[in-house]
Amino acid sequence: FLSIPLFILSINLTVAQTINFNKYQYVIVDSKFDFVRQVDGYRTSSLTKFLFKKKGFITYLDNEKYADELAKNGCKALYAVVKDVSGFFVTKSYIEIRDCKDRLLIKSSEGTSKYKEYEKAYRQSIRRAFESISEIPYEYEPSLSDNQEEVNIFSKVRENSKTLTPTKKLTGLLYA
Fold it and tell me: What residues does 117 pair with on adjacent strands?
């Protein structure tokens, strides 16, 4: 019975070790997280963007104009979302990093705060959650980028984009 959990744990660690963040140059952060009522509520999105920029990524909010290279191939970016799991007395959040196919690549550790004021509490919990991400070594290496297949997929999607509705979310990007 003990061998099954150990086997599952070893598979998870192997998969986690194969993720190479150095092949990604960009991070796109949601401009409005589920737990806030307005765009960049409590300045959570701008803080998250700042933290990834400080880490060395070129960062954008999802409502900003992207670099031409990124606009042509959204799979050159990682997508970051902050999730709220707060309790009654403690603000808790974690950060999910996904790829363009909406696969979860990493989930940060939980950041907590006991501040009563929402803006301070969310900002502190996001900073604490980001600490586990900041420990991952990162330096962009263009030679590792193997997104040629994904470029072809994006080209086909763009050709068919006239059939999509303005709010339909496809592989992490909004198409008009």
Answer: none
Q: What's the CA gap between 175 and 60, in Å, rounded? A: 16
- CB neighbour class for 28 (10 Å; exposed up to 12, middle 13-18, buried from 19): buried
Confidence band (pLDDT; 50, 70, 90) for 98?
very high
- Total number of residues shown for the chain: 176
- Burial of residue 126 (number of CB atoms within 10 Å: 0-12, 13-18, 19+): buried
- pTM of the predicted model over 0.90: no
Confidence of residue 142 (pLDDT cuts 50, 70, 90): confident
Long-range contacts of 35-38 (CB under 8 A, 24+ apart): 35/82, 35/83, 35/84, 35/86, 35/93
Token reading at 12:
């998870």
Residue 36 C-beta-side C-alpha neighbours within 13 Å: 21
> What span, in angstroms and rounded, lies between the C-alpha atoms of 92 and 47?
16
| Residue 33 tokens, joined | 């997280």
Name the nearest CA neighbour of 154 among 33, 82, 66. Answer: 66
Instruction: Kindly state the DSSP code that residue 171 receives in the 8-state scheme.
Output: T
